[in-house]
């Protein structure tokens, strides 16, 4: 029996299901998805990039919600303000020991494992497709470069 062709609609539904599953996994350990995203960013970013304003830019969000997320992570003991970052008023943010222990239990590790087992060719195809989808969603369907959305895509230092 021949394989049925993969339809665009079926791929879109699978992508939506994957996105919903990822979002649901983002409620692990008493955190919300935005808090997990912030922890992942802080775990992977260089010290000069670990500020609330750089996090907001990375997430393509306004500063207010990101600052609330950071304050919550500080209150939970997962992040600490480690002094001034550069010549601006921004404070450098660092993960605490508890924050590093939590990121080691990141629910996205299961996705990492699936991608790690993927042949290189398939991984490149998936990465390119995801980059285009994210870019299209952020620009309303217009062509654009991947930009900062994927700036940490090749950084495995948080592993």
The major β-sheet equals: 2 strands, antiparallel
Which strand order spans the largest sheet, edge to edge or round the barrel?
A: 1-2
Strand content: 5-15%
Helix content: 40-55%
What is the fold named in CATH at topology level?
Arc Repressor Mutant, subunit A
Give the structural class. mainly alpha
InterPro entries: HTH_MarR-typ, MarR/SlyA-like, WH-like_DNA-bd_sf, WH_DNA-bd_sf
Organism: Devosia equisanguinis
GO molecular function: DNA-binding transcription factor activity
GO biological process, one term: response to stress
Short description:
It comes from Devosia equisanguinis. The chain is mainly α.
Write structural notes for this entry:
The chain has a two-stranded antiparallel sheet with strand order 1-2. Helix 2 (33-44) crosses helix 4 (63-75) and helix 3 (52-59) crosses helix 4 (63-75). The chain contains 7 helices and 2 strands; from the N terminus they run H-H-H-H-E-E-H-H-H. It has a single domain, classed as Arc Repressor Mutant, subunit A (Orthogonal Bundle), CATH 1.10.10.10. The chain has helices at residues 8-25, 33-44, 52-59, 63-75, 97-103, 109-116, 120-138, and strands at residues 79-84, 91-95. The protein has 159 residues and is mainly α.
List keywords for this structure.
disordered C terminus, about 160 residues, 7 helices, two-stranded antiparallel ribbon, Arc Repressor Mutant, subunit A, mainly alpha
């Amino acid at each position: 029996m021949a394989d049925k062709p993969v339809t665009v609609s079926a791929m879109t539904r699978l992508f939506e299901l994957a996105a919903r599953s990822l979002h649901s996994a983002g409620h692990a350990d008493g955190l919300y998805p935005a808090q997990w995203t912030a922890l992942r960013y802080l775990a992977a970013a260089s010290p000069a990039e670990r500020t609330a304003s750089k996090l907001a830019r990375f997430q393509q969000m306004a500063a207010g919600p990101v600052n609330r997320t950071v304050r919550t992570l500080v209150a939970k003991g997962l992040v600490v303000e480690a002094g001034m970052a550069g010549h601006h008023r921004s404070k450098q943010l660092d993960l605490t020991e508890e924050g590093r222990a939590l990121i080691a239990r990141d629910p996205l590790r299961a996705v990492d494992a699936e991608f790690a087992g993927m042949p290189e060719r398939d991984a490149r195809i998936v990465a390119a497709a995801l980059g285009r989808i994210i870019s299209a969603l952020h620009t309303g369907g217009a062509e654009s470069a991947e930009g900062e959305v994927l700036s940490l895509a090749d950084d495995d230092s948080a592993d």
